[in-house]
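Handout, section 4.2: multi-component inputs.
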Amino acid sequence: MLTKIAGVCGVLIATAAMAQSAVRAQTLYTMDGEPITDGVVVINAEGKITAVGPAASTPIPDRITVHECAFAMPGLIDVRSTAGLSGMYNVDHDQDVLETSSPIQPELRAFDAYNPREPLVGYLRSFGVTTVHTGHAPGKLITGQTVIVKTRGDTIDDAVVTPDFAVTATLGSSATEGGGKSPGTRGKQISMLREELFKAQAYARKHSGASTADEAEEEGEDGEEKKDKSPPARDLKLEALASVLAGDTPLIITANKMQDIASALRLGDEFGITVWIDSAAEGHLMAEELAAAGNPVLLRPAMGRYVGEAANGTLETAKIFTEAGVTFGMQTGYEAYVPKVRVILFEAGVAVGLGGLDQEAAMRLITITAASILGLEDRVGSIAVGKDGDIAMYDGDPFEYTTHCVGTLIEGAFFPGEQDYVIGYPGAGGPMQR
Amino acid sequence: MVLHNARIIPIDGPEIERGHVVMQDGKIRLVGSGPAPIADDVTSIDCEGKVVMPGLVDTHSHIGGFGGADGSGPIQPGVRIRDSLNVLSSGFKRALSGGLTTINVMPGSGHLSSGQTAYLKLRYGGDVKTIDDVTIFDADGEPTGGLKMANGTNSQRASEGAFPGTRGRSAFLVREKFIKAQEYQVKLAKAEDDPDKAPARDLDMETLVEVLEGKRVVHHHTHRHDDIITVMRLAKEFGFRVVLHHVSDGWLVADEIAEAGVGVSAILVDSPGGKHEAVGLRFETPGILERAGVQTVVHTDDWIVDSRLFMRMAAFAVRGGMTREGALRAITLTGAELLDLDERIGSLTVGKDADVVVLSGDPLSVYTVVEQTWVEGELAFDRSSDEDRLFAVGGYGAANDTEPYFCCYDAEVQAAETGGAK
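Output:
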């Protein structure tokens, strides 16, 4: 039996040159050049794209699975979500979005909290979302470190793309404390952040000083001095902030009101750190400043409610940012209630429809632009030879309300589309009848 | 006023490829195909390339900064939402920009009954200053509205005094109150018109008697399949008319709903869950109910879903398998039927109120925007006006002037919704 299987594999390899699957789409948006009519993508056994082009000139190897659809594009990328930490049931058991024990906890890693089997992660995948930058929700001054995942896998190790990608912070009313606790005001928020960053500077200095001492020790200097300069005890909090100060890790600051956006940019300048503005409900009023600052803005979802700090927000921010030359990505963010996760496909669609954003610009924002912001442009975000075989397949224009996602490929592996992804309901007694 | 050269979706008949709608004195005077009869002294708008359809009817909204029942008890049918609304709320203008012209504004679901709802016309600006200016009155001059009720976890607040902690107690409290109302009804009948024999006036009882007599429809929040069945059981026991609202699990009990002959006002949100009762929510529900023969509409529950995205929800019902006709009817005429207002609104029918929307394209397309909303022949929203456009897209000054209400959740999460997690 074993021999027989090996024999079959041999045939496949001989005829398919490692090819594992292919997509054939009436319209293929590669996001790497013009759209292709009747396009073909070939993906090998390692999940990498080996060929892309018009069907006429791109042969599909024999005896491999071919997924046919009306429309295909690169798997969608969400530049900021809380998926996998913010579960469907919305009970303590599935909510790991915010540690409330103290206001400053950059040492918390989303990596240690992400639940790859959360039903809503699969739900996102059923609409074509393949890569998600996720982490803690806004709500405390410094909330933790984010993680970038693919929307597949049974463990975080299967899912992870980039661990500890960024440190996240929050300014404004959602991160102020009551009852005499700090920070109780916007002013106090910034003073606390500055103090913490100064501490981290000192910590980093001690560590670098210590390593100089280590080198000196090797040269045979006396033990007394070595003791003085031995590295300080590791402090995970300050280590995370030192990484921000070193420029290795962006500090993503949730800021909606104009004054909070300005404060976040000012903080970046003072410490020479990479600050990304997150959410930016009033960002449309500061498009010039954000363009000049140059770092990416992770724009709140178009359908995020325009209440509280977002009351002055507009559906047109993505369009305004595009025109002003702001580098930005589109995110789904965090929802306390419903919809418990948002779908980046839907948010981009509304930014186009009601928000006036150019359709192709929106497609770029949720694919190649997002990949570039997340430092993954060599791996995902477009359909090109050598990149991951992450493909979203639809039965029409992906933004149209009545279109369906008919399947999603992640590194060549097929996952069902929205109509075939039914979240199990206790007592429902089987799949729903449509 | 004549809107001509438009694709007309009258709802009560087939779509007209190129036709016209004539409005006069707040009513629809003519709907037809081909060139419009335009006299010299008549204002007309060329709607070349546009779509004209009836103003949208939202059977479940929370805009206007309402205050219904308070924390003093779980059943307060005597409380009227019409005594609390701010008619100049920016929410009304935002709803107009989404093409809505008639809404059922309701108190919340944190009570078994949180009070009387109000059926409103979104007249706006100018002379509109009081609740009466936006109220839809019936033939007797009484304000129209239903009664809000709820079951399931939202109204189970055992820690708060008189509130129930379980489904069993929830149903018991409702039955107990309705039995009292039946007794009150008997006393009223016995007294006939003699004020000396009549029982003391009791606003809760009077309202429930209206419900028992079928004059006031119950709008019942309910999600879980067994809660849906419970609502229909109580409706049968007391003979009240009911519309089932939200029905996350409606697809599990579609045949039972059809058999009971009650209407459904469903909600679709972009993902299931957010609470245990709503994990069964599916885009397929309206289509499944439609095929089972249930009178089915969708609603915004604004701010749960922004009123500007109401047409989107009809489109998502189609995405889930509802027919195009059913989905367009679900945001117009079927909604009017569930509010007992179908004689007056919900379709482009001669003699009905001139509530009309002009769209840039097909109502079910993501690329379509509302260009104009007419309420009783008056232009109430015009996207080409900067002032109105602010409400359609947002921006500085479009700020909501009232605290948002998120149907069905506790204060802690509600606070978090306006910022981050707590």
